[in-house]
Amino acid sequence: MTGHSTCVIFLVQSEERNIFDQRHLEYALQRLSPNTPVFRILFSEILNLTSIPAGVSSRPLLYHPPHHPLRTFEVAVTYFRAGYGPADYPSPSAWEARYHIARSRTIACPTVLTQLAGMKKVQQVLATPVSPGTPSPLERFVTSLETRAAILRTFTNIFPLDSTPAGLEARHLATDAEACQRYVMKPQREGGGNNFYRGAIPKQLAKMPEAHWGSHILMELITPPPVANLILRNGKVEQGGVICELGVYGTCLWEHSDKMAAPLHNEESGYLLRTKGDQSEEGGVAAGYGCMDSVALV
Q1: How many domains does the chain have?
Q2: 116 lies in a domain?
């Protein structure tokens, strides 16, 4: 312990629009732990407002509030609401700021490894079909045959677009005017507005240097059952066919060492249902394509 009071930091973007759910989390934290303050600071201000004391082996992350220069807090948890897109890393100092957080003992949410685990290329490696007799990368993490088979049944087909045999086959599918209609091409990006669907795939690949194709994945489209409903968006009611996407959330906390990661807490923690018009190919709520919804059990 450093002797300083602890706090929680929300790292946010300079022009944050999606602030309301962040405030709900902030208020919930304050109800659970009234004596632990929550501060919001810009991702670009990490290096200016926090420090790691030299010569202290435990590497605490200390926050120095600009509005109260005589106070110092130790950051118990750093919650990233920025740092997910290229625009958050405009200079080497931004990467240094991310490293600054990672090398401290603050609990980063997410850690670098957790963030990478959600990347499209990692999903592709786990889901890419393998030839008979070739072990799946999923076997490294799930040893039970029954559990692994159950997980694989939830995957859609995801292919690389690199120069491997699977990637060359995917390139053929992506550039074929008819075959591409069954696929979506995704980059390593979060949120809506970054994907290319069906006939737009060959056109986008034609604009890109072939050396950059491998940074994308090709995913087989999921065709949901037809549903009709009402959507309230921008103050107007829209009626017609809709598509729903249910996301189930989990919380996980683990102790990590060089040899292993031991889970301390791992449980389901709620869901989010997004609904969009069936003519819209994107579904991000913050990006303006989808709407929040609730589940009707029938």
Answers
A1: 3
A2: no
Q: Are residues 24 and 51 in the same domain?
A: yes
Q: Please, are residues 116 and 122 in contact by the beta-carbon 8 Å criterion? A: yes
Same structural domain for residues 216 and 231? no
First-to-last alpha carbon distance for the chain, in angstroms, is 52
- Strands ordered across the beta sheet of 291-293: 227-233, 236-256, 261-277, 291-293
- Pair (147, 92) in one structural domain: no
The reported pLDDT for the residue numbered 233 is 74
In degrees, to the nearest 5, what angle opens at C-alpha 80 toward C-alphas 74 and 86? 130
Q: Determine the pLDDT at residue 284.
A: 57
Task: For residue 48, give the CATH number of its domain.
Answer: 3.40.50.1760
Same domain, 178 and 232: no
* pTM (global) more than 0.90: no
44 CB neighbour count, 10 Å cutoff? 17
Residue closest to 180 by CA, chosen among 129, 218, 123: 218
Those residues of the chain that have pLDDT short of 50 are none
The residue to which tokens 């994107």 are assigned: 282
Structure tokens belonging to residue 34: 């009234």
Q: Tell me which residue range forms the domain holding 107.
A: 5-111
Q: Which single residue is written with the structure tokens 């989808």?
A: 290
CA distances from 147 to 87, 139, 151, 236 (A): 39, 10, 6, 45
- For residue 234, give Cα distances in angstroms to 112, 239, 240, 285, 290: 36, 14, 16, 12, 11
